[in-house]
Amino acid sequence: MSPLAHPEHDRMANAVRALAMDAVEKAKSGHPGLPMGAADIATVLFGRVLKFDPADPHWFDRDRFVLSAGHGSMLLYALLHLTGFPQMTMAEIERFRQLGSRTPGHPEAEMTEGVETTTGPLGQGIATAVGMAIAERHLAATFGSDLVDHRTYVLASDGDLMEGISQEAIALAGHLKLSKLIVLFDDNGISIDGPLRLADSVDQVKRFEACGWAACRVDGHDPAAILAAIEAAQQSDRPSLIACKTTIAFGAPTKAGSEKSHGAPLGPEEIAGARRALGWTAPPFVIPDDVLAAWRAAGARSREVRTAWQARLAARPAEERGEFERRAAGLVPAERLDAALATIKQRLAADPKDRATRASSEFALETLVPTLPELIGGSADLTGSNNTRPKGMPAFSPETPAGRFIHYGIREHGMAAAMNGMALHGGVVPYSGTFLVFSDYCRPSIRLAALMGRRVVHVMTHDSIGLGEDGPTHQPVEHLAALRAIPNLMVFRPCDAVETAECWALALAAAHRPSVLALSRQNLPQLRDATAPGNACADGAYELLPAEGGDAQVSLFASGSEVAIAAAARRLLAERGIAARVVSVPCFELFFDAPQERRQAVLGTAPVRVAVEAAIRQGWDAIVGSDAAFVGMTGFGASAPAPDLYRHFGITPERVAEIAAERLRQG
Ligand SMILES: Cc1ncc(C[n+]2csc(CCOP(=O)(O)OP(=O)(O)O)c2C)c(N)n1
User: Model-level pTM?
Assistant: First the structure.
């Protein structure tokens, strides 16, 4: 590869700059500084290096490009337009940041072909890219490098590298020796408040080196130097950082190098000055033919590589090819899931006993992991507590990339973002574990998974005061409510081993939704008959135990570990001659999605409703109504054995029965 002669490079890069400043100007909002400053880096990458084909944006073996600094979205949109992605017309560029356009303020993966992940919250992109690189490495080891052999490139800004999540990501990538991960750092020394020295004095090259990366510095406006650095990075046995010294808003006469260009339109005068300085004479939204031709040629560079790849795939034996294509498409066949669920239930029927739902989850995984080779498990250093590693599941490491269990270390946020990257990459379905209370440490990434509609499964154990002696720092109280507040996220809280298996099946079947499985540390009785077919959890809630001896006077609603408490309360009420039914509510979101008649039937007509959950009430009113009674938590937990805590906080069958009876008396 030889560097382009500068004049052609400059005109190509200036096309990016012009589109960025003109689109931001027209939208009257946006971020021109980064696209103008990073245009040279992007032109080398997209013009000379990146393996992609706009004619097939989803080609599996394409290089992935992550614009971690999502505020610089116009950089990406300009590149997609110039290289010829069919969706990214000039009309879309002109509709930057407008309702319904493919050019939203920050790149959104589900919105725009060529956008590999949604970015905007700084640090997420680089951490997501680590997951993409893990998926690539694993799939290359699984299917062979003639089918899977691509790199992951990231453009990261000062803000990305200041965010804490970047440290988790960098350390993990260095440890795993993800040599096909290359981060181009837009080292412009400017953030919103002004020069970086106001808030930061990290030597990023030293920092990355300390994490096991290859790292170097280049002039980010010298295309030959950028290309040489990328080529060197491609040869490295470690992930690489290329710190590219750039000037924000390169070309703008008074705002270049200043925070004034970061996040506001430059204004007509400044734009006119930039056009003069850059020698760009074309009017807004017009790309001269020669420049467009050069860009389109760049976009077509990898076409033959892609057709050769397709031929290699076609030459594979039918079964291998079918499996590769199934996994690449993210198809988890319903028959396979149904069969796995039936197997798990048979095993449970043969071995019914009290189990913590975290152990029930492991029990389910013992069948699911061999059945679904795309499952990649993990834990943030709580493997033995989360029960996410069934026996015999080999670890993923630089030496054993075909391994399927990732030791993420104590890096919950990095883990959750990496899981997003794996799901976005495709070919794998990630699940992993931590304590439910630390969902807070994962939350920004879980939110993005929900926004992007990606199947990631978070096993979150130790889901209430039931964890006992570790005390209130470890006892989630508001976390279920907080997670249920995230749109499109399914929060499962199964009550026993059968429900746990059913919830796993539902989580894996949902190709476009992330899930959290909130699981108990403490043992729970098996309440369900394991021989019953179907999936009772599919509607999110169902009548587990009917009223006996007449119409129900009381409906008891509960989730997870409190379902057994509700069941015991039902017996106590029966002793008092009060007919009560128990409704298990393993998943609010699926219940809200269920048809109206089914929801009505589940809610029933009993005059008294009581909900029981060892957490705050928030959210329950939408199911049981604000007039219902609630038995749960109103503040933080405490450090003590779990049975003592349940008694202390009054979450007992006796209290539930008493409250229900009292309500009934009051009429
Ligand atoms: C997690 C997060 N915090 C804050 C912001 C708001 N924000 C957007 S860009 C930015 C910093 C800009 O500095 P830099 O990353 O160097 O980008 P540049 O100025 O070079 O465009 C901030 C604080 C954000 N997008 N994400």
Answer: 0.98
